[in-house]
Amino acid sequence: MSVAEMDLYDYLDAQDEQEQQDRGFVVDSLEKAEWCMRKLAKIHQQDMADEELAQHEIERIQAWLQARKETRQRSREYFEEKLRQYHQRLLDEDPKGNRTVKLPHGTLKARKLPDKWDYDDQTIIEWAKANQSMSLIRIKYEPDKKLIKEYVKTTGELIPGVTITPQGTKFDVEVDV
């Protein structure tokens, strides 16, 4: 099929679509349903083509931006390290007075980070049992929702605290492209 023929088909299809919309188009046959599916497939293909083009441009611009940032990263790291060293000297001289240093183009801040605690739960539980320190162990009660669902379905008895909300019917249109 030539480009001219494709353009003619697109034109005729657009005219047909406009006529259908003008007449209050109703899907009342398999042929009309298939026509709608073809229209949806074409719209989907156009969306995908636009997204592909946009994604290509986004990737190109992101690559450019990343390259620009990478060329400046060494300088950034150099100056930040020099400022960190300077701030550390100020803190060494006066640990309480120089936590924040305000400058015309920015602020140097130093904050003590909290200690990081890592826990090996099983080792702690074993230790607590051996040392009669079970007050350090929390026992957690929570409903087993899978078992509750099976129980209600099997017995028909609704358990207090359980609410069942019917969700209705969901309709999807899947377009094969």
Labels describing this entry:
single chain, 177 residues, mainly alpha, 2 domains, 4 helices
Biggest β-sheet: count, sense, barrel? Answer: 2 strands, antiparallel
User: How big a fraction of the residues is strand?
Assistant: under 5%
Counting structural domains, the number is 2
**Structural class of the secondary structure composition?**
mainly alpha
Number of strands: 2
Given the structure, what is the number of helices? 4
Mean pLDDT: 87
Short description:
This protein has 4 helices and 2 strands; from the N terminus they run ααββαα. By secondary structure, it is mainly α.
Task: Write up this protein.
The protein has 177 residues and is mainly alpha-helical. It folds into two domains: 3-109, no CATH class; 121-155, no CATH class. Helix content is 59%, strand content 5%. The chain has helices at residues 3-22, 30-93, 121-130, 145-155, and strands spanning 100-103, 106-109. It has a two-stranded antiparallel ribbon with strand order 1-2. Strand 1 (100-103) and strand 2 form a beta hairpin. The longest helix has 64 residues, at 30-93. The chain starts with a helix and ends in a 22-residue tail after the last helix. The relative contact order is 0.06. The model has no long low-confidence stretch (mean pLDDT 87).
